[in-house]
Amino acid sequence: MIPRYLQQIIQQSLRFFPAVGILGPRQVGKTTLAKQLVSDLTRPFLYFDLELLDDYQTLSQNAAWVIDTNREKTIIIDEVQRLLPIFPQLRGLIDRDRQPGRFILLGSASLQFLQKSSESLAGRIAYHELMPLQIEEAQSTQISVPTLWFRGGFPDALLAPSDDFWYLWQQNFVKTYIEQDLSQLGINASPSLLANFLRMLAHNHGALLNYSTLANSLGISHTTVQRYIAILEQAYIIRRLEPWFVNVSKRIVKSPKLYLIDSGSLHFLHGLRTQSHLFQHPIAGASWEGFVIEQIIRRLRNGVFPYFYRTSNGAEMDLVLVEGIQPMVSIEIKLSLNPALKRGSTESVTDLGTSHNLVITPQGGNLSVRPNWIHCNVEEAIKQLENLGLAEKIV
């Protein structure tokens, strides 16, 4: 098992809260982490996977009896969003016998999970998001940043013995999502349409999100595309990065940018089979940008929010970190090793008023390239943000 930095944080929640919710995409390691957590607590556990018919029927018909007769155990319920009526029952059982660490609830669809569990378990549950591997986690197993970037952060894909096996894993992962999961989440379309939809999103990675263009290309309605995008976001497949435009008296781009969260899935959808193919492909720059943005976003502390900035006259910044209504850090991301800044970047910093600014390239060096600008790699950038109090430190 690859050590996950959330493990210690979730352990603390288990010592206080009766229930802990772990949300994240499929195959990210939620089940493995949950079983490791109860092992560390030296408490017996009972595991139910609601994708298995027997487990689903057991809990849907006899949840109260099963839980009541296993009070000394931590009960892990996987894919809990498949049995939403269980949440009111859990509330009653918790209130009748409130013990810390009694339930670990795993879910891969955030909106349904959060809505139902928040209604029933408010004050009784702590939530944590487990996402694909971060740089420090991958490096703990001697995996380099370029390998993590190319293969993405799903543990089984990252640890595949060859790129051929990595490609096969991605192929089956995407196929499962298209043929099973997305229909269960509410995307009722043919597998061929969904496959085209995902490929179109991959080709729009890092670009402004235009619902009408996507709808016209697929032959479906504008509102249907919006609904599909929302579902994919809830399933942790994509991320929408919103523009920053508060208190700026300029003509600002107000459409969000779209990114696939996992860089490995992005590369598979572009048909890339090796890292050398990636460097020769037009998507390489946008892929590196999305990879860096995702690594930074996952480390931001509470109260710090990510945006991008773009005006109609050419000022542009890949990532802006905002606390309250105050932009704190501007970040330019380049695949080129040359840290030279364009006029659009310097104009953005003038507009935003940030005194801490980073240009991130693969090589880095923590070098000052001009006043208030540091040239660094992604690991150095995260350290800079930690020192500024904007990012959480991994202990």
TrEMBL record:
Key words of the record: DNA-binding
Domain AAA+ ATPase: 16-136
UniProt entry tagged with the keyword DNA-binding: yes
SUPFAM superfamilies: P-loop containing nucleoside triphosphate hydrolases (SSF52540), Winged helix' DNA-binding domain (SSF46785)
Domain of life: Bacteria
Gene Ontology MF terms in the entry: DNA binding
Database matches in Pfam families: AAA_14, DUF4143
Protein's name in the database: AAA+ ATPase domain-containing protein
